Amino acid sequence: MNLKRYVVFLVMAALMVLVTACGGGSDEPTAAEGTDTEEAPVENTEADANEEATSLDGSVVVDGSGTVYPLMSLVAEEYMFTEQENVSVEVSRAGTSAGFGRFLVDNGTDFNNASREIKEEEQAEADEIGIEVKEMKVALDGLTFVINKENDWATELTEEELISIFHSEGGVTKWSDIRPDFPDEEIHPMGPNENHGTYEFFYENVLDKADLVDGVNLQQEYSTLVNLVSEDVNAIAFFGFGYYVNNQEKLTAVSVDFGNGPVEPSLDTIGEDAEYATFTRPVFTYLNVDMAKEKPQVLDFALYVAKNVNDFAGEAGFAPLPDTEVQEYIDFLEGLK
């Protein structure tokens, strides 16, 4: 009898060991099970976010400054390629003033690029038709004077000499009027026309609103100016540094003496506190805030511009903005969500 009870005890003990080893009867999750339970919502959240990010579609319309065009085109191309393939960003270059004409109307463009600040009358027009406008700097540009590659005498000029070439009362028509040892040849001054913010910056800030010299050749297309200067040894033109960077094989940039020796425009010298500061200017894009609130793709592209434009600035021939200034734009745009 005792032996039989002993055998039963051994069988029961063996069954208990087997059940424990298999984890049977326990409601507590294993460590692995617990980890899976906690991570699942995170994975779903990320998936939802990705799905939301890829769900944007529609169009974004940008017009305005030809100077800002190369930079904004780069940003738009990367945005469509890497961020939102179903969003079409159209970037045009009617010029700053002409662009504001398309921006400050009902159902106008979403952004207007500008190589100058918005004018008082343009802001008044926006207020009158009820458009909220947000100014965003996108980079720093250096106003650059370019000459023909064969021009080996005017590679370094003072600020005053440059102004005298374009000023209606500068008293200069030939190179020899600037310095006696320069050629006795007529100067052919050129630049962008009145549609461009670069013209207005030059007229207002460099010439102090004086008339330009008679006979100055003003063009709508920067590519035309590049070709004209590259084919005329007596030509000199002004435009943004980016256009010079993209045509260095055809043109020479004039180093400017602001009083402390010649300074060549470059990404190292262009800046509001740098050696080329006198001819440095911010360039902008103006956002229709109402469009950003109404169309998610417009706000998403605006945020992409603010967060990434400094990465593209150098490639397009612009100096970047300070990080603190960029963060202010990001904070504003995040507040529109």
TrEMBL record:
Residues covered by region (Disordered)? 27-53
Q: Where is the composition biased (Acidic residues)?
A: 35-51
Cross-referenced CDD domains, in alphabetical order?
A: PBP2_phosphate_like_2
SUPFAM superfamilies with a match to the protein in the record: Periplasmic binding protein-like II
Task: Determine the domain of life of the protein's source.
Answer: Bacteria
InterPro entries, per the entry: PBP_domain (IPR024370), Phos-bd (IPR011862), Phosphate_ABC_transporter (IPR050811)
One Gene Ontology biological process: phosphate ion transport
Where does this polypeptide localize? Cell membrane
Where do the PBP domain residues begin and end?
Answer: 52-306
How does this protein lie in the membrane?
Lipid-anchor
Q: Does the keyword Transmembrane helix apply?
A: no
UniProt keyword terms in alphabetical order = Cell membrane, Lipoprotein, Membrane, Palmitate, Phosphate transport, Signal, Transport
Q: Which residues form the signal peptide?
A: 1-21
One GO term of the cellular component aspect? Answer: plasma membrane
Q: What is its main location?
A: membrane
From the UniProt record, which GO molecular function terms apply? phosphate ion binding
Entry's family note: Belongs to the PstS family.
Question: What does this protein's UniProt record list under function?
Answer: Part of the ABC transporter complex PstSACB involved in phosphate import. Involved in the system for phosphate transport across the cytoplasmic membrane.
Subunit and interaction comment = The complex is composed of two ATP-binding proteins (PstB), two transmembrane proteins (PstC and PstA) and a solute-binding protein (PstS).
Q: What is this protein called?
A: Phosphate-binding protein
Q: What is the lineage of its organism?
A: Bacteria, Bacillati, Bacillota, Bacilli, Bacillales
